[in-house]
Amino acid sequence: MIVTTAQLFKHAYGKYAVGAYNINNAEQAMGLFQGAIDSQAPFIIQISKGARKYTDKRMLEAIIRSAGEIYPEAIFAVHLDHGDEQTCYDCIDSGFFSSVMIDASHDPFAENVAITKRVVERAHAKGISVEAELGMLGGVEEDIQVDEGNACLTDPAEAEEFVKQTGCDSLACAIGTSHGAFKFKGRQSLHFDVLEKIKGRLPNFPLVMHGSSSVPQDEVAKINAAGGTIQDSMGVDPKEYLPAAKLGVTKINIDTDGRLVWTRVHREFFRNNPEQFDFRPPGKIFMAEYAKFIASRNELLGSAGQLEDLRKSLAAS
Ligand SMILES: O=C(CO)COP(=O)(O)O
Ligand SMILES: O=C[C@H](O)COP(=O)(O)O
Ligand SMILES: [Zn+2]
Ligand SMILES: [Zn+2]
To answer: Hey, which of 63, 127, 216, 289 has its CA 20 to 30 A from 263?
Structure first.
């Protein structure tokens, strides 16, 4: 069942975070749905502009619709990740997306407000939720590269003003994370002090954490042992997901870690079976491994085991 992110956040707020996982193909979709059902968790399936271009945007819609039929128990939102204004309108008009992200965080504050307001108006007219972004993460995002030095944390006072002016349903805040596999040299903590201040100014308002992959060191070691040259780096400590959720983070975005699972499975498979050229055996292994990964993340997010309670509260509302 497809629901809006606002519906998911109402149930999750202050208790757990909903995992938001990107997909680009059928194998990722199947692993994601299987892992969500295995862990009895709601989830957000997110599609970036790059994913919509990878095959064809209609292909992804068809894959998600089919996965929803194969796993009728699943409760999830279909969300546009890092949309520009035009892509938001395209998704709003598609009749398929239940949530969009307008990412105008690279524009000046007033421009970000103006663009976000226009998207909110169009989305809300169709009952679709809107995530906006304020502050800047480091790392690679779509086709934009932000230097670590330029990454700026979200200003709590600005966040309050931004939400008041735009009417967005959730806000992506920069609290020290960055996109991709190269986040931190050595372990670093989230900026819980900033998060607390944002929550103080926006009580009960759903916050979103991008760049939340943990970049598992064993996964990177296996990839490199099988011929990869992934640079030494660390991600977010997944034990910090739940403390962040208690401070109002209701959506935690994880994409890179899934790509690492894919890379490890395929590198190991073809290293161990150099005579093979059938992609289905590693594809099968990937789907099973990705399902396990999703279930393990949902445990850490606190979303595991929430599915039936959510179903009851949706039925009652
Ligand atoms: O924020 C993300 C998608 O919007 C993904 O972040 P990661 O690169 O840490 O997986
Ligand atoms: O934030 C970026 C997401 O991980 C999506 O990545 P992508 O734009 O390469 O699909
Ligand atoms: Zn951004
Ligand atoms: Zn992101």
So the answer is: 63
